[in-house]
Amino acid sequence: MGGKLLVILLLCVFASTALGYPTHTQYWPHRSVLYFAPENDDYVKQFLLEALMHECELVDRDVVTLVITEDGYTVPSWLKEEFDLKILAEIYSVKKGEHTAILLGKDGLEKYRWGAETDWQYINDLIDQMPMRKQEMQRQRSPCEI
Q1: Which of 14, 48, 89, 123 is the most exposed place for a label (fewest CB within 10 A)?
Q2: Which domains are seen in the chain, by residue range?
């Protein structure tokens, strides 16, 4: 009996890290943009700057941006402590040495993938066409509209 309890406890403790970025729930409270890069280079800096410039639209669409580089740089910085980043890159088939951005929906599924540069207007329009987002827009008006 004690052995079974120990196994169950260990499975519970290690299950979250084994899964990488959470794909174990039916719906997330947010959408995600995962930005993978070889290093903290100019493309990463531009991505972070543009994400900041589009913060209102991203918050309105419940988008969380995450940056993961092969040399260990992450935004937010705690990301490397919570997830196995190598497994995360493997799960999403990210090629080493390349810039890869991935949009994940609230259902946890990949919706779109692109390279080093981000067309934020296209991403916002793409999100706005998603069924869940259409429901959100019917319930509330965007705080970003002037």
Answers
A1: 14
A2: 31-139 (3.40.30.10)
